[in-house]
Design goal:
alpha+beta; 4-stranded antiparallel β-sheet; 4 strands; about 60% helix; elongated
């Protein structure tokens, strides 16, 4: 697994695809391309019906092969930002090394090199090259700066942020209503990813987020409260209050619906 850490301390988990998944996806693409070439050749033969000489017919067949095995894959990969039929089936996508969407130049480089390493050498070069890098890159990926990422991954449920016991009394009376949603999301994401950060980065980011949050929370926490402990208390208190507000709203809606259900059909409360 590879990770990209954004400027807001959000760790993006990017899981490279293994060679087996990539190989199966390539076989699916190759089979579909063979079917297209076969169908087009039959259509061409039926249309020409001997009207052209063999040399011209061979040139047309070569053009069809280039269109199907190079132009079409590059076009599809560019338009879909790294997808193909085989990758769609296997849940894969081609992305840049930084996790961003690929562009035409990436798809073109991969397509050009793929003609050699996949079609002409029957995938042997791609297999050998993929053995010597952790992301199972083939030669085209190394030159284009891309790799195959797994999109279908099991997302583990995020553990709920607990309230620090010594801040429970403070949090019960603290005013956190001014905390905006974007900042609350950043704090929650930091707390979820904190165990995977280096101690220095974790300390710096906790201090920065605590400083930004403290201006929107009153009264301030007790003296000597650790920044990360303060963030835990704020998020836990905010979650508890939002849950109570939503529960109260749901109760009022249910009560109103029950009263309306008891009214005679076609009448309102004033009759």
């Amino acid at each position: 697994m590879s990770s990209v850490v954004t400027g807001e301390a959000v760790v993006l988990e990017l899981r490279p695809a293994g060679f087996a998944a990539r190989g199966l996806g390539t076989l699916i693409d190759f089979g579909a391309q063979l079917l297209v070439v076969f169908g087009l050749v039959l259509l061409l033969a039926d249309t020409l019906d001997g009207a052209f000489d063999p040399a011209l017919t061979g040139a047309l067949v070569l053009i069809l092969v280039v269109l199907v095995f190079l132009v079409l894959p590059v076009t599809i990969e560019t338009v879909t930002r790294g997808k193909s039929l085989g990758r769609l089936v296997m849940g894969l996508r081609i992305v840049r090394d930084d996790g961003g969407a690929i562009r035409f130049r990436h798809a073109f480089l991969r397509g050009m090199v793929g003609v050699l390493e996949i079609y002409l050498l029957l995938g042997s070069l791609a297999f050998v090259v993929s053995l010597f890098n952790e992301r199972s890159k083939r030669l085209g990926d190394l030159l284009a700066g891309t790799y195959s990422m797994r999109e279908r991954v099991v997302v583990k449920p995020r553990a709920a942020v607990g309230m620090p016991p010594r801040l429970q009394q403070w949090a019960s009376t603290a005013d956190i209503g001014r905390l905006p949603d974007p900042l609350a999301r950043r704090v929650s994401q930091f707390l979820a990813q904190a165990p995977r950060l280096t101690p220095s980065a974790r300390s710096v980011l906790a201090a920065e987020l605590a400083s930004e949050t403290s201006f929107l929370v009153s009264p301030p926490p007790p003296q000597g409260t650790h920044p990360e402990e303060f963030l835990h208390a704020v998020i836990a208190a905010r979650r508890t209050r939002e849950f109570r507000a939503m529960s109260g709203q749901r109760s009022r809606i249910n009560a109103t619906a029950e009263r309306l259900h008891r009214l005679p059909f076609g009448q309102d409360g004033g009759n």
